[in-house]
Prior knowledge:
The complex is a heterodimer. By secondary structure, chain A is an all-alpha fold. In chain A, about 75% of the residues lie in helices and about 0% in strands. Chain A has 14 helices and no strands. In chain A, helix 3 packs antiparallel against helix 8 (about 120-130). By secondary structure, chain B is mainly alpha-helical. At the A-B interface, helix 2 and helix 10 of A face helix 2 and helix 9 of B.
Amino acid sequence: MNxxxxxxxxxxxxxxxxxxxxxxxxxxxxGHLLVTGxxxxxxxxxxxxxxxxxxxxxxxxxxIYGLTDIAFALADALGRGFDKVGSLLxxxxxxxxxxxxxxxxxQLLGYELQLMRVGRLSQGLVVLIWASRWFAWTAGSIAxxxxxxxxxxxxxxxxxxxxxxxxxxTIESLEVWNAFTxxxxxxxxxPMAIYRAWFRRFxxxxxxxxxxxxxxxxxxxxxxxxxxWHVVAPxxxxxxxxxxxxxxxxxxRHHASTGS
Amino acid sequence: MSGYLAIxxxxxxxLLQYRAAALGGLFTQIFFGLVRxxxxxxxxxxxxxxxxxxxxxxxxxxxxxxxxxxxxxxxxDEDVAVQIRTGTVVYELTRPLDLYGLWFxxxxxxxxxxxxxxxxxMFAFAMLVMPHVAPGWQLAAPSPAAFAMWVPCFAGAVxxxxxxxxxxxxxxxxxxxxxxxxxLLGTCATMFGGLVxxxxxxxxxxxxxxxxxxxxxxxxxxxxxxxxxxxxxxAGWVIAHQLAWTIALVVFGxxxxxxxxxxxxxxxx
Lengths: 260, 269
């Protein structure tokens, strides 16, 4: 069986397991929808009071918010297995993954596709669709939306992999990483232009969320004339993800089991 | 009474052990605080209208919120959840203490020890480091009168938070898994407690409603007293609001627990 078909098999099993408890699933998803939906409600409330955010309008911010949240929800759902690395290591269960004739990355990606993230995904989609009424759409800008989301997913996935990698040294998964995953998501819900220069540089050169979502969004919103750089910028996402996979390999090599 | 105090003291000491976790959390909370300050400063920068809160007050409010974040009852007390799921809660009933009092004492320790662990370094950062790295974005020192009124308001916030936490424990008798109610309450407390948007910045029609809810008692009202948004002469109302909600939540929690215990079925021989 090739890797992709095996992955699909893993995912099918994971989905069936989650749907076994339908009521719990429904409650959790609705809860997740509410928890993430209040973030946009907050943005709306601030616009209701202030009218504008340094020249940015509510629909513009909504589009950026939608892009980021859709990507974060998908990355969160896909990378769920990497969240579990800390507890897998503690229990010595990671060794079982090492003896199987498949890569650890494939096994962890297939560990669980967290369905409950549909909550954040759907509110991100609703916000994006609501915002899209204000802008003129071309084939180019629609393609750019897809490209931006894909690039941003790769950045968030890369962060999840790096967080898991750090667990090889610390065993306990560190809360510090939440600043970059959840914090990165929070920060990139707003246009990067409103932040201080050092902060923008960090999210451009180190964790390239500005390149994958904010920069293409400028072209989608018609703030910049579309040029080749808006298309190239989201490619920073896959590059970041590839670097995180290299770090992961170093981590696996460093791994010393807790088992006997 | 000494029994409850002993529970508070023991739980407080055991919660103080998680110092490394508090340090890791501190970094994340500083990061979120910075982002929130930058966003709110950008909104203020674009607007020339007079707002119900000045920018320095809003910035102080954000840092105070980050410092006392753990007052928000997001999670259930896992020890109590396990007791209810496995039925060992009956051992608690055999103790010469009232079960609600016991839970309240546990909650009180849970709402103080971790809060102190994060509050002290966060205050130090926001008051002493911020003026050097980003002048104007620090937590300004309060006037002596504001500080004197903030201390009892903070104590009142701990009481409301403990009463809410105890109420969540009681609801476990019905829900068992303990996901739904804390999630819902936590969401309300985040939104209507001032963590997403400072409550004074909500639309004017919504403000009287939000101010009167118990969620305002935990982060919002004490922070407004500290920053001087609520003058010290009016802080008495804040304390009255907190005490009224504490009494209401305790009475409701006790009544609900009484009903829960009447239908409690413990399995096993």
